[in-house]
Each structure stands twice: as C-alpha cells, then as structure tokens.
Amino acid sequence: DQQVKQNSPSLSVQEGRISILNCDYTNSMFDYFLWYKKYPAEGPTFLISISSIKDKNEDGRFTVFLNKSAKHLSLHIVPSQPGDSAVYFCAASVQGAQKLVFGQGTRLTINP
Amino acid sequence: GAGVSQSPRYKVTKRGQDVALRCDPISGHVSLYWYRQALGQGPEFLTYFNYEAQQDKSGLPNDRFSAERPEGSISTLTIQRTEQRDSAMYRCASSGGGNTIYFGEGSWLTVV
Predict the structure, then answer these.
(1) Fewer CB within a 10 Å sphere, N or C end of chain B?
(2) What is d(CA A63, CA A108) in angstroms, rounded to the nearest whole number?
(3) Are A99 and A2 within 8 A, CB to CB?
C-alpha cells in the first residue's frame, strides 16, 4: 500500500526551463510534506517543506505547492540548472509522528 | 561530527550470518532513525529513537531485526540470520527535534 506516490520515474528538462515534479498521497492524516534531493552515492538531503496550513512555500528557485483537496503536491524549480540533476523524493508525515513516508523518487535530468 | 556517519559503507555477508550496522548521528541530535531503501524505491521507515528510548519499531520487518542506542548517541542495527531478501541500502538519519531529518550515506548490505 503505497501511501505516497511519485508516478513519474524520470523527467528531462532543458536548462533554464521550469521543472515540475509531482507527488500524490492517499493518507488524509498527513499534514507535513517534504522534498529531498539525492545525488549518486550520497544520502538524501532536505530541500524544502510545507505544512498543511499553507498551500505554497517558496525558497529561492524552489517552490512547493500543496493541494489538500486533491491530495497532491508539486515541486517547481525555476530556472532549472545542470546541478539540479538528481533523484527527488517526496515525503509526508503526521505532525509529531516522527516518521516519514517516502515516494519512489523521480530522476530529474537537466539538459544543457 | 559534521554529518551522520555510517559504517561499514559496504558489507557482503553469507546467508545465515549476523550483521551489525553502526550509525553515529549529528552531534547533539536527540532523534535517530533507521530506514531501508531498495533499488528504485524511496527510504522505508524501520525504527526510531529519542535519546536512548526506542519510540517506534513498527517498521522492523520481523524479529531478526533489532536496534539499540544505549547511551543516546551511537546506534546499532542488527540483523540476525541474514537472508537474501535483506539485501538493501540501510540509511540512518538524525534530527534535532523538528520534522526535518538528515540522512547519512548509508550502508549497502549484500547477502549472498
């Protein structure tokens, strides 16, 4: 039972364009969402998060949007840069539950 | 240390042997987590500690898996009588109290 789903295993975007990574969840109890970025041979690193009381959170080139009614969140990267090429994981938790449920990941490739 | 440190980075063991994986969290971090990640999947929660107390072990697959953190710092994940299906990346993470957790580089376990 996959509670957090990233249905696109891979995405290819041209440098300078917008990258949009999507994530869906099924558990309505989730109220905190995060995106992690992972380079080869490294552990996932925290990128950006959003609480369910918000529908948007922005940090530089990265913006996360949350649509609670659709149980959907997305990560926008604009403009995309070659260094953004990595695997991106969406994760969700229930506040205070202390454990994260991850999606399968999406491999983003930024083409020069 | 500066980040979460795990050892060994790579472990090959014969089926039936016991394995111990070590995690040294970020200094001062109260919470320590163990996740398992199969190829092409996101990390999957195993267990976590606050200080030396194991708060949730609901993700441990069976009773061959155990974890301890006796002094509230370094943790060991032990797998007894390993099986081939135990082969995976085992990731440790720590946090200072918020929902953001910081991952180590992981320990690759291969059971042959």
Answers:
(1) N
(2) 16
(3) no
Nearest to A98 among B31, B43, B91 (CB): B31
pLDDT of A18 > 70? The answer is: yes
Amino acid in the structure at residue A8? S
Residue B46: both structure tokens together: 């195993």
CB contact under 8 A, A100 and B43: yes
* Interchain contact, A89 vs B4, CB within 8 Å: no
What are the tens digits of pLDDT across the range B32-69? 999 999 988 999 999 999 999 999 999 999 999 999 99
Q: Which of B87, B112, B102 is nearest to B32 (CA)?
A: B102
The residue type found at A17 is: R
Q: Which of B91, B85, B90, B33 is nearest to A93 (CA)?
A: B33
**Band (B1; pLDDT cuts 50, 70, 90):** low
Taking one residue from A and the other from B, the number of pairs with CB-CB distance under 8 angstroms is: 58
Give yes or no for residue A96 having a pLDDT over 90.
no
| Yes or no, beta carbons of B99 and A44 under 8 Å apart | no
Report the chain A residue with the minimal C-alpha distance to residue B103. A43
